[in-house]
Write a structure and sequence with these properties.
The chain has 510 residues and is α/β, with parallel strands linked by helices. The protein has three domains: 186 residues, Class I glutamine amidotransferase (GATase) domain (Rossmann fold), CATH 3.40.50; 187 residues, HUPs (Rossmann fold), CATH 3.40.50.620; 102 residues, GMP Synthetase, Chain A, domain 3 (2-Layer Sandwich). A nine-stranded mixed beta sheet has the order 2-1-3-4-11-10-9-6-7, sandwiched between helices. Strand 18 and strand 19 form a beta hairpin. It is globular. The two termini are 42 Å apart. About 3% of the residues have low confidence.
Length: 510
């Protein structure tokens, strides 16, 4: 199997680059630039390398650099943004602040002759995000693209198969970005597209059957896609030696707990223990309004419940987790920046007696996990369910969490999702949900004055969740949802629709 190394210099799109490559059925893995050396790259047998973007200036001594010997390994290399500038710097070029200042957003580029741009129009839109530029090309390189603000928007040393682009081909805002990546993978690097989820699922089942033979395994089943696919895969591998604990903390969506149990236990035959801990969680959350404090309380309480259930089961030796590749990357590797810490990355819980962790999805992105889930026979309603934060409704309710507020939000959210799903839209939004705000306003019901809560509806379209556009839902759909929510959900007097994109907002409110 051919492997592409995505050498990470701190860029926000590192994961997206790897996902784009894998979508072409070529395996890519992300490694921090601080974790790799030329010797390690040679040992690991990569087919090609991609240098990612990053927030630094290459002429800053504190910025992440690399051994310039990487350019002499004979491997095709594509430098993107900071990676483009770093390639030029390592090869002897000059990098300076752009004379026309920062260049950010959609920009028209003119392309010259290059294998990297085969099949690309001579002029098209690219996505720029930089303040520095290549001012003098290194020896052996030629400029292959330009914009009004960036004379060297791309460069190439075709003899050594070294290519750099100042723009971001991995984002959808670059018109022919995917074609550029395909050209690098197949025309320049000669990669073979043999990375498939069918092969992964079959291999993973056999691998974990062998690794876990004779061991008892415990999995915390949240009902989310990652843990559900982990459960289905390990159940196929080791059957009754797997026990799953499903903690119902009272913060799930409407009928969600019953659906999870129906699919996992009744349909797939997975051994699942459902723990009703609603009163326990709501008690701990009483009076708490800060979102981060809510998260910490939920996480701590979840661990306590899980520990108690593990003891009842005789303390199994192996802890299974639904860790996926973004969890690993976002929790930081080597010198890479930590975007956010994940509870399921970082090793064994020290006081629970586990001797091993099983993470069969650790190498996969979310879309790959969904594909594996379908191949394992998980129904589509679970595999393709709407993304849902770990703390559940607690981070979709502003202010204090109460059972009454959870019930209100559950009903409003169910109505909104139902109206979208039966509207016959050509394409569903990537994510859609309701938020219960702590705003109250005057309303009129019949001949009576009311003073009720405000529900905010949110729907976004994205293919990477790093940027997102608010969805232009039909007014008739919003009208039906608003009418049903104010009529059917007691305590709601107003419904608003969030029309903020990401950035500047995030997808979730809290």
């Amino acid at each position: 199997m051919d492997k592409i190394l995505v050498l990470d210099f701190g860029g926000q799109y590192s994961q997206l680059i790897a996902r784009r490559i894998r979508s072409e059925h070529v395996y890519a893995e992300i490694k921090s630039s601080g974790d790799m050396s030329c010797e390690k790259i040679k040992e690991d047998g990569y087919k090609a390398i991609i240098f990612t973007g990053g927030p630094n200036s290459v002429y800053d001594p504190a910025s992440p650099h690399f051994d310039k010997g990487v350019l002499e390994l004979g491997l095709p290399i594509l430098g993107i943004c900071y990676g483009h500038q770093l390639m030029a710097w390592l090869a002897g070029g000059t990098i300076e602040p752009s004379k026309q200042g920062s260049e950010y957003g959609r920009t028209e580029a003119v392309f010259g002759d290059s294998p990297l741009f085969e099949g690309i129009p001579s002029e098209s839109t690219v996505w720029m995000s930089h303040t520095d530029s290549v001012m003098q090309l290194p020896r052996g390189f030629k400029g292959t693209a330009s914009t009004n603000g960036c004379p060297v928007a791309a460069m190439a040393n075709e003899e050594k198969r070294l290519y750099g682009v100042q723009f971001h081909p991995e984002v959808t805002h670059t018109s022919f970005g995917r074609q550029i990546l395909r050209n690098f993978l197949f025309r320049i690097a000669g990669a073979v597209p043999d990375w498939t989820m069918e092969d992964f699922a079959e291999t993973a089942v056999l691998e974990w059957r062998e690794k876990l033979q004779g061991k008892k395994v415990l999995l915390a089943l949240s009902g989310g896609v990652d843990s559900s696919v982990t459960a289905a895969l390990l159940h196929r591998a080791i059957g009754s030696d797997l026990s799953c604990v499903f903690v119902d903390h009272g913060l799930l969506r409407k009928n969600e707990g019953d659906m999870v149990m129906s699919v996992m236990k009744d349909s797939l035959g997975v051994n699942v223990i459902r723990v009703d801990a609603q009163e326990r969680f709501l008690g701990r959350l009483k009076g708490v309004t800060d979102p981060e404090t809510k998260r910490k309380i939920i996480g701590e309480e979840f661990v306590r419940v899980f520990e108690e259930e593990a003891k009842k089961l005789g303390s199994p030796q192996v802890l299974a987790q639904g860790t996926i590749y973004p969890d690993v990357i976002e929790s930081g590797r080597g010198a890479a920046a930590v975007i956010k810490s994940h509870h399921n990355v970082g090793g064994l819980p020290k006081d629970m007696g586990f001797t091993m962790v099983a993470e069969p999805l650790r190498l996969l992105f979310k879309d790959e996990v969904r594909e594996v889930g379908e191949r394992l026979g998980i129904p589509k309603e679970l595999v393709w369910r709407q993304p849902f934060p770990g703390p559940g409704l607690a981070v979709r309710i502003t202010g204090e969490i109460t059972r009454e507020k959870c019930d209100i939000l559950r009903d409003a959210d169910a109505i909104f999702r139902e109206e979208i799903e039966k509207a016959g839209l050509g394409e569903l939004p990537s994510q859609y949900f309701a938020v219960l705000t702590d705003l109250h306003s005057v309303g009129v019901m019949g001949d009576h004055r009311t003073y009720g809560s405000t529900i905010a509806l949110r729907a976004v379209a994205t293919d990477d969740f790093m940027t997102a556009e608010w969805s232009k839902l039909p007014f008739e759909l919003l009208e039906r949802a608003s009418g049903r929510i104010t009529n059917e959900v007691q305590g709601i007097s107003r419904v608003v629709y969030d029309i903020t994109s990401k950035p500047p907002a995030t997808v979730e409110w809290l």
